[in-house]
Amino acid sequence: TTPAAPRHLLSIADLTPAELTTLVRNAHHHKEAIKNGTQEVPHSLRSALAGKTVAMTFSKRSTRTRVSTEGAIAALGGNSMFLGKDDIQLGVNESLYDTARVISSMTAAIVARVGPHSDVADLAKDSSVPVINALSDLYHPLQILADFLTIAETDLPSSTSSLGVEGKKIAWIGDANNVLFDLAIGAAKLGVDIAVATPKGYEIPQDMRRVINDAAKTTPHGGKLFETTEPEEAIKNADILVTDTWVSMGQEEETAKRLAAFKGFQITSELAKRGGAKENWQFMHCLPRHAEEVSDEVFYGDRSVVFREAENRLWAAISALEAFVVNKGRI
Ligand code: CP
Ligand code: NVA
Q1: I need a labelling partner for 145 at 20 to 30 A (CA). Which of 5, 31, 153, 319 fits?
Q2: Are 41 and 77 in contact (CB under 8 A)?
Q3: Residue 306 Cα to ligand 1 middle (Å)
Q4: Which family does it belong to (predicted)?
Q5: Within a 10 A sphere around the Cβ of 5, how many other Cβ atoms?
């Protein structure tokens, strides 16, 4: 008999609202237990990947995803094997199919950073072990687990079925990209409204809009998606202002055109005030950050939670590996 196909994490869309909630709550539990020493870390977790290797195939640069994933694998007692684009045959001398078959025959999981999303989807199709998307041109699930931990952790309800984020409003000011897509899907599932301001010509593609709106239907009080080309309009009553780079990896040749198109989209205190953000608004950014998308005053100011958000990548990665690799997708 052929073994059951493994469960993969390619997008937040792969998770039910309850599973997303559990993954974020588990990440919080691991943070408390390991960092703050206030909760027990079960011995079984510390050695859950003992004697096992997790392959990390990265075709693009990474600081946070690499460090957090390697740290998480170490926290679970496993061995991480980082395979950069110049280290293996993939793409140059060997097909994705052959690579997936070979790597998955020797490892417990594959964490992959790719260009086109079809690359990680194809890898998952042919892999006999779980594949976790470490960023594709469409999605960034590990980032979004950390983002909802960041939003929820300061006020997490003790009930196990909620993150306490329902009814909040996120304003995304900038490019409609991979990080936004998974964030919007997560928001929809958790009952968080999200208003997206992009320049004309840089809107969310129609297919993706459908995926986001479908995500809202997976729960009785799904979050709503609003779209505009005016940053001020998106910011009105927002609890959280978020942005990301205007030039994602792989779009470098469009830099001049993009910088011109996004003029006026820099997040500043003045813009937040003009737009009418909530009094206690906070700023988030997945990083790496460039000065054009957010002023230093906001980025390094009191409202910014970006470095806590970055650290939360570690706790989110432990939670994701535990769920998908240790527990084989039973969440
Ligand atoms: N936020 C994020 O994924 O950063 P890296 O590209 O440095 O991994
Ligand atoms: N949108 C960015 C995210 C990097 C973590 C990119 O794809 O380059």
Answers
A1: 5
A2: no
A3: 12
A4: Belongs to the aspartate/ornithine carbamoyltransferase superfamily. OTCase family.
A5: 12
Would you mind telling me the total number of residues written for the chain in this entry? 331
Active site residue 286: yes
**164 and 113 part of one domain:** no
- Percent of the chain past pLDDT 90, that is, above it, reads 90
Q: Are residues 183 and 94 in the same domain?
A: no
In-domain check, residue 3: no
pLDDT of residue 1: 59
Q: Answer yes or no: is 331 within a domain.
A: no
- Contact status, residue 170 vs residue 193, Cβ threshold 8 Å: yes
Kindly state if the Cβ of 249 falls inside 6 Å of ligand 2: yes
Identify whether residues 208 and 257 lie together within a single domain.
yes
Q: Is residue 42 reached through a cis peptide bond, with omega within 30 degrees of 0 on the bond before it? A: no
- Read off the pLDDT of residues 84-131 as tens digits, 9 standing for 90 and up: 988 888 777 888 889 989 999 999 999 999 999 999 999 999 999 999
One-letter amino acid at 53 equals: T
Distances (CA, A) of 264 to 71, 150, 205, 256: 38, 27, 22, 15
HSE-CB of 156 using CA atoms within 13 angstroms: 19
- Choice among 234, 238, 286, 298 that is catalytic: 286
Ligand 1 pocket check for 286: Cβ under 6 Å: yes
Residue nearest to atom 1 of ligand 2 (CA): 248
Give the nearest ligand 2 atom to 250 CA.
8
Residues 87/59, Cβ–Cβ less than 8 Å: no
Confirm or reject: Cβ of 133 under 6 Å from ligand 2: no
Q: Ligand 2: does its nearest atom lie under 6 Å from the Cβ of 142? A: no
Gap from CA of 4 to ligand 2 centroid (Å):
33
In a domain, 52, yes or no: yes
C-beta 286 within 6 A of ligand 2: yes
Q: Is residue 135 domain-shared with residue 148, that is, in the same domain?
A: no
Name which residue sits closest to atom 6 of ligand 1, judged by CA.
62
Distance 206 CA to ligand 1 centre (A): 26
**CA neighbor of 142 nearest in space, from 324, 322, 327, 320:** 320
